Amino acid sequence: MFEPVKAGFRQFVAAFYAQVQPTTPALAEFAARGLFDSVAMASGRMVDQAEEMLAAYLRDEHHTATAPARLPVILLAMAVDVIPTGRDYLRQLAAPEWVTIPGDPKERAFKMRTASNDLRAQVVIAAQNEPTARSLAAQFLLYLDAAPNRYFNSVHRFAGVDTDWPVEIETADVPFVRVQTDAKNLHLLAGDLTLKATVPLFMAPAAGEPNDGKGVPGTSDPAGYPLVSDVVTNFVEQA
Q1: What Å distances lie between residue 224 and 71, 205, 210, 212, CA to CA?
Q2: Which domain of life is it from (predicted)?
């Protein structure tokens, strides 16, 4: 349900990585290294365990003796907390509404609810020296402060069609705080973000229920609800 939000968040940070300015020798190497070895999602880690996140990254199986993990690195994590978001920000549909999905060649009728939640996320910067860590944090805040950069899309797929759902970062005023560690020559800075996200929950006829015959119930290409004239005139198209 929230995996597309995670993917969108990583793409958001990937766009930041693409415009990092190398103000130190370590950042020059970081910028030339490539996204795959520079930005990582800390899957399965608690959002506030920054040092454990880094240790897991350094042990990751895709690193080898010839291609070891290197610093600096940006680590991303999302907490498991699900917090109701303020109604002033996002619309939540608790009762199912009739929808057609823009771009659906079969023009099927489905039902949809939406869940609006605050998701706690964290950006951790790990570097071997203070100037590199501080530069990365300052550049990320500069990137975040640009108006379009407080939003990104999460892509949700249903019935073979992708729809974009915007995610808002609550504020650009994000302090990056040093995480104390016993490791020498290691500087960890962590910034906490709140992602305000709305995700769709589509509904289609189950096997055995009346349907329009335009797909197979229970599959990734489901049938829609049967169309009748008094419903067709009241379709609400959502995106």
Answers
A1: 50, 6, 9, 5
A2: Bacteria
